[in-house]
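pls design
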């Protein structure tokens, strides 16, 4: 909560961001939220805020919520920060339940949540070394350099929180909703003999709704959830009658939302392409670059 509250500051001379990733990402999100906050309804999806003449196909759900809050009189900062704080707790609880279903251990579940949020390689080793050389409270709470960011390897994202969850608002919402969709499907599969049919149907319908709205929340989370829950359903095909409630609900909702809001986006053949190793500076990925299916 403290991180989100400090991440953006509105001053008379302009908007200040607490991190370079927020500076770059939230400018887009504020532009999208302003559409829902200040434009008439028939202009909401009439144009793309960045690409002149382009269709508005960016997953907009999290910015829609912030825009509606702004329209209701909530300040820009609060309309952005409060939903993010709520989603973080939703994600935390969802991850804990997911890991508990997989491990059946409270301790391992808590450790797994910490690993997920702190996953950024061994950057903490350098932080400990720097802290030993400069044992001050100020450095303890505010390191002078990012932990886990390696510019030499073109890894700029740092850890999960700094690189993804805080700045990328669509990623946060998509991950939170997607985790709970996976939890619902996995819970029904693992507890199949312990649950009544009506309870299983309700859980799968809710999971299907969560998965179904992902196209307008976060496209990559939607792809991940489709793959994960798809494999879960495939490996448990004998339970197809009960799992069909999830598949049908998720399929119908996601198809409608995708065709209505996402399909037919930026008309640029090079907007997305297959080019493995495109950021590598050394010789390791030269072969990959030569045999890339598409040039980016």
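designed seq:
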């Amino acid at each position: 909560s403290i991180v989100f509250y400090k991440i953006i500051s509105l001053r008379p001379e302009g908007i200040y961001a607490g991190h370079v990733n927020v500076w770059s990402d939230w400018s887009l999100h504020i532009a999208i939220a302003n559409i829902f906050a200040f434009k008439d309804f028939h202009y909401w999806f009439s144009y793309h805020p960045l690409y002149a003449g382009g269709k508005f196909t960016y997953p907009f759900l999290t910015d829609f919520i912030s825009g509606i809050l702004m329209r209701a009189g909530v300040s820009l900062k609060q309309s952005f920060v409060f939903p993010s704080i709520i989603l973080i707790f939703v994600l935390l609880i969802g991850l804990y339940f997911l890991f508990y279903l997989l491990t059946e251990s409270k301790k391992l579940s808590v450790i797994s949540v910490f690993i997920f949020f702190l996953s950024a390689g061994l950057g903490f080793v350098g932080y400990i070394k720097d802290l030993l050389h400069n044992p001050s409270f100020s450095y303890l709470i505010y390191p002078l350099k990012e932990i886990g960011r390696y510019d030499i390897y073109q890894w700029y994202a740092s850890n999960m929180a700094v690189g993804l969850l805080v700045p990328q608002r669509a990623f946060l919402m998509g991950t939170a909703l997607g985790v709970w969709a996976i939890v619902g499907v996995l819970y029904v599969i693992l507890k199949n003999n312990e649950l009544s049919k009506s309870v299983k149907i309700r859980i799968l319908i809710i999971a299907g709704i969560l998965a179904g709205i992902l196209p307008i929340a976060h496209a990559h989370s939607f792809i991940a959830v489709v793959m994960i829950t798809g494999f879960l359903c495939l490996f448990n095909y004998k339970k197809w009658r009960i799992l069909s409630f999830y598949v049908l609900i998720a399929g119908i909702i996601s198809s409608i939302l995708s065709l209505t809001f996402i399909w037919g986006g930026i008309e640029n053949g090079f907007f997305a392409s297959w080019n493995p190793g495109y950021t590598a500076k050394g010789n390791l990925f030269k072969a990959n670059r030569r045999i890339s299916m598409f040039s980016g």
